[in-house]
Specification:
CATH superfamily: Histidine kinase-like ATPase, C-terminal domain
Order of helices and strands: HHEEHEE
Number of strands: 4
Strand order of the largest sheet: 1-2-4-3
CATH class: Alpha Beta
Length: 122
């Protein structure tokens, strides 16, 4: 995991993100990878695709998919866990999730610029 985090942070900084935005993106990727490992079959395939001014990370797992009743919302303060997808959506504006019985594919993208700071707090 440490190697994945370092590579994502380096790619985000090279793409021109401010250090705090690179850190937020790295945290979001970290959450997705941890979810894939914990809930998606014990392993994750992570693809990092940097380009000038943008970084895209795709995380694939081979688990049973995300149940239909799981939505990215903030659980109550007394609930253990369940904050991963919610946190990802707070830290990264461009997130797509495709899930099926064959597993889940989560794609996160970030673009350098003045408007990359997430504003949403649902």
């Amino acid at each position: 995991m440490a190697d994945v985090r370092h590579r994502v942070t380096r790619a985000a900084l090279r793409a021109g993100l401010a250090p705090e935005h690179a850190e937020q993106f790295t945290i979001a990727v970290n959450e997705v990878v941890i979810n894939a490992i914990q809930h998606g079959g014990g392993a994750a395939d992570v693809t990092l695709a940097p380009a000038p001014g943008t970084v895209t990370v795709t995380v694939r797992d081979s688990g049973g998919g995300i149940p239909a009743n799981v939505t990215p919302r903030l659980p109550t303060p007394h609930t253990l866990g369940g904050r991963g997808l919610w946190l990802v959506q707070q830290l990264c504006r461009d997130v797509t999730v495709h899930t099926s019985d064959a597993g889940t594919v989560v794609t996160l993208s970030v673009t350098a610029g003045p408007d990359v700071t997430p504003e949403r707090l649902d």
